[in-house]
Design brief:
Blueprint (H helix, E strand, L loop, with lengths): L8 E4 L7 H11 L6 E6 L4 H11 L3 E9 L2 E8 L2
Parallel strand pairs: 1-2
Antiparallel strand pairs: 2-4, 3-4
Family: Belongs to the sulfur carrier protein TusA family.
Protein name: UPF0033 domain-containing protein
InterPro entries: TusA-like (IPR001455), TusA-like_sf (IPR036868)
């Protein structure tokens, strides 16, 4: 899934559990411009599958990458329209 991208904005949802990482990601992505990349920082391990499922079923977004960095799960989402 790795590709080159530049993060436009970072959303910190550490300490929040399902469904808040997805809810707040959607709200933040809605305010970005086409082509912008949102970095989402979460501590909920469920965010890995939750954000994948959300991105796969949501028009206008693309999940670029996900990684685990210690206790933090990093997600990179591009607004495509």
């Amino acid at each position: 899934m790795s590709t080159e991208y530049t993060v436009t904005e970072t959303l910190d949802v550490k300490g929040e559990s399902c469904p808040m990482p997805v809810v707040k990601t959607k709200g933040t992505i809605d305010d970005l411009s086409e082509g912008d990349v949102l970095e989402v920082l979460a501590t909920d391990s469920g965010s890995m599958s939750d954000l994948t499922g959300w991105a796969e079923t949501t028009p206008g977004v693309e999940l670029l990458d996900q990684e685990e960095d210690g206790d933090v799960f990093k997600h990179y989402v591009r607004k495509t329209e």
